[in-house]
């Protein structure tokens, strides 16, 4: 039976790094995938001696003299060089300080733009965005102008094999990875070098290569979105329906202190709505405690505690989709309520491959227990909407962090050579949500705690330092350790809506706008969606966080800018927007802008924004502009818990690189990391890579010339 792909509505969630459009879900794929996985495992076992021999022969032919036996890359997403240096100097980060003293520490040049999907794709491939085709979290559909997920898309037709009339289990993935170019781990595999690649962003669907990989950012939840929570409450204030980051549901009374509800899962194949499983809760107010029966799984929770991962099966006819979730009571009184995390794909029974080889996630889950598989597993929107509080978010983030540590150390213990590379997300997610604590005047502090968790970011860096120390204890004398972040962090206090600016200055029109005369004001709090825009008159527009697009004739549907006028229009807009003032606060909101042809030399340049916007630290595209919406307010306060960011002028938010092997390069960049890993292993960087090894004398000389 073919795997049924379920259509998923666009998830218009304006979160900068971690929530975007849904990408679809293969309901019922678990059984066929399991059969295929068993067959693949049997073939792999029989072929193992041959593969080891061939890999050894290829490795001897292709490898030069390796500098080290093993390269360990510890990715700490978002670790900031300014904060790291400050706390090292104050003696709070002894393990990082030791590497700085014995090896090398440098700020690490980030990407244009400075965001995780772009940065980690550059880290993997050694090319910029125009070489790997990932420019943002979101891109735009040229036909509809709607924002779409930039990294993956659903395949419209899957190839099916048959044995006579009998359909065979298929291992073809229902999603397509839109990242182009070749990551360094494939180069390693081609040369017989072992690799374990754990949770590096933009690796879904997983790469097929001769190593191990666990996918990360953009793995969807079981509903086909980038993460949709569910919040249940007693009857009272009406919170039902869809919110920005999740779904609110009202419980039904079934006796004293007993409540019934339904947890929504993936959509039914006939389009009649989601498959659901029943939830029954009995509350003991005196405890207080709550006893749950969720789809047949029973557990009891007190206050301020998460459940373990709960397996949940959603059945639609003969098809079953397996997910996992965690539950937390949010209030016992005056009205009982509880939160359910997004439904992660069950790693023990995955409905589609989330690892390479496909059975790797199954084996890891059975060995260590179930773990988060959602690409963006820390639920930032549940905290943004105050469904959970700061402590609940920290508990969740550090639980996921602990899972990642177990996976990382498991790989370190079992792979003595080659490359082991992992990315930890807590350093990014916690800074996003707690950076406001570092500035008493941040607009997001209004009405929120400013004391209890004031040391959350400081504690985060100390935990990261402790992880570095425990990692070094696992290393041998022939191992090299690189600690890398893709960008740094700054305050995000004010949001900029370029669509509002475009409309006010005659570059964008709504369908309701008159052909002549002044444009009517948009009421405060009102916004217009992409479908309200008059594209036949609109010359420039934005979505995502990187920059903006021109509505070019022949490229976009209803494009009105002649291609021959595009360059002049870019220059006009760059000159007008550079130094964009903030009338309320004074000063500027935008420091610089770059035309795509000035920063992107690669073959995929046309797929990215026409202009990259460098916001001044403290500013970023606002929540409405990120999804292409139009408001009347050009610059406004950011009052959400998401209070720190990096989608700003890339020159102001470098990442970090620490190396246990000293190097002389004074201006290393993310694009240099892939060739540097290969260089340490004695492998020549492929010709497509534009970066250079930071350990080469040539790279150091070039950096010295650039500095002078």
SSE inventory with pairings:
Elements (H helix, E strand, L loop, with lengths): L3 E3 L18 E3 L1 H34 L7 E7 L4 H9 L4 H9 L1 E5 L7 H10 L3 H4 L5 E3 L6 E3 L2 E3 L7 E2 L2 E2 L7 E3 L6 H7 L4 E4 L13 E3 L14 E5 L7 E2 L3 E5 L1 E2 L4 E10 L6 E11 L4 E6 L2 E5 L8 E7 L2 E7 L1 E5 L5 E4 L3 E2 L9 E2 L3 H9 L11 H5 L5 H25 L3 E7 L1 H9 L21 H18 L5 E6 L5 E7 L1 H7 L35 E2 L5 E4 L15 H12 L12 E6 H4 L11 E5 L2 E4 L1 H4 L8 E3 L6 E2 L9 E5 L13 H8 L16 H11 L1
Helix pairs in contact: 9-10, 10-11
The helix content, as a percent range, equals 25-40%
Estimated radius of gyration:
25 Å
How many H/I helices?
17
Shape: globular
Q: What is the CATH first-level class name of the largest domain? A: Alpha Beta
- Give the strand order, joined by hyphens, for the main sheet: 4-37-28-3-27-11-12-26
- CATH architecture of the largest domain, by name, is 3-Layer(aba) Sandwich
What's the CATH H-level superfamily name of the largest domain? Answer: Alkaline Phosphatase, subunit A
